[in-house]
Design goal:
The chain is of the alpha+beta class. The chain has 3 domains: 15-178, NADH Oxidase; 195-331, no CATH class; 340-437, 2-Layer Sandwich (Nonspecific Lipid-transfer Protein, Chain A), CATH 3.30.1050. It contains 19 helices and 15 strands. The chain has helices at residues 7-13, 26-36, 52-61, 77-81, 85-112, 140-146, 195-199, 213-220, 225-237, 241-247, 250-262, 270-274, 282-287, 289-302, 314-322, 340-350, 402-409, 415-420, 430-437, and strands at 23-24, 40-45, 67-74, 117-118, 151-152, 158-159, 167-174, 177-178, 307-310, 328-331, 361-368, 373-380, 383-388, 396-401, 424-427.
Length: 444
Amino acid sequence: MKLDTHPTVLALANRAAPTAPDVLDAGWLREVALNAGADDVGFVALDTPGMEEEAEELRKAFPAAHSLLSFVVRMNRESVRSPLRSVANRTFHDTGERAEHVADQVARLLEDAGVKAINPSMAFPMEMDRFPGRIWIISHKRVAEAAGLGKMGLHRNLIHPRFGNFILLGTVAVDRAISEAAKPLDYSPCLGCNLCVSACPVGAVKTDGGFDFQACYTHNYREFMGGFMDILGEVAAAKDRADLERRVPLTEGVSLWQSLTYKANYKAAYCMSVCPAGEDVIGPYLEDRKRHVTQYVKPLREKEETLFVLRGSDAEAHASKRYPHKPLRYVKTGIQPSNIDGFLRYAGTAFQPGRSKDVEVRLHFTFTGASEREATLDIRDKRLEVLDGHIGERDAHVTVDATTWLGIVAGEVNPVWAVIRGRMKVKGPVAAMSRFQSCFVGGR
């Protein structure tokens, strides 16, 4: 059968193809999303300043991407606030499924109207072959901020001006312009109340605006990604069942089973639980702040639970001091980079400001072998700065084989051994290198 006489081709010839305008009407598009179940909607062009990284990544998945529809879906506040994690996690997953449904419905309706569109995952699945690099296709928080749906608070969650942080986000990318320009909020709904700082059991949220991603990742995401691999390592290393039970307590084993069976569970998310921001949320807090703390903050602080930390980390120091009644479980795996670019990008996650007090050191690195790169890492004022190339006067110059350095970072290669074998050379005082390494955690 010839192609031009195929029934499908003939059927298409007798049917009018859907056509859509070059510029989509924002009012119509908003109604589509709201009717699909979204609670608020915003729009942003992909060429908006500040969206360059998102544009680059999104177009790998959808080269025709031109504009973004951002939306929020509300969660049940009281469920998120519950000290019992099964209740909070259930609403995370239920709302996540609704958000995925909204995005899928919008994309399908747009396709029916002749508009090309994709809906990247609200959370998981992601591009895990990139791990621990950028596994997400689109940063929903960044898009939502640009679209005027809120601002990120001290706790790094997006705070909607009305619904507060009790929301989940989604994004739909389309292949054409939208009639409404992005209108970011001109204020932050964050109240600066520091309740998120008070509630975080591992000290990830800082009063000075800092955020310890490593601490949050290690505890809250224990049954995701790196934590899961850590437990698999214990299984592989165990001699027998009795040894495995010594390595992985029964409660951890069944908790992991639950995450694998009923979707991964967060260990905390307390920063969201206690946040009083948002027009629909703030009323009771303004009426009686003490009651808010008693009702929502105190139960989380007093809860007896295991906290997962890296030994020697700021999180360990914080938890030991603030929560002596919460037992600590020392785990082995932080975020482990797979190449030098990843090391330089994520060095800040392993950096521990609390351990860098009074440390001022600048090192020049020359990486050789699998990754040839020059970089400067500077520590002072409890901050780490990573610079491309050799910048400024250095305290020491480290020339090291890339694979060897990644092994040192992971705790698998002894630095002294690396020097003896000639795989790492330190020009300058060795003490400078020691001071530098004392400010990091994350190796196995």
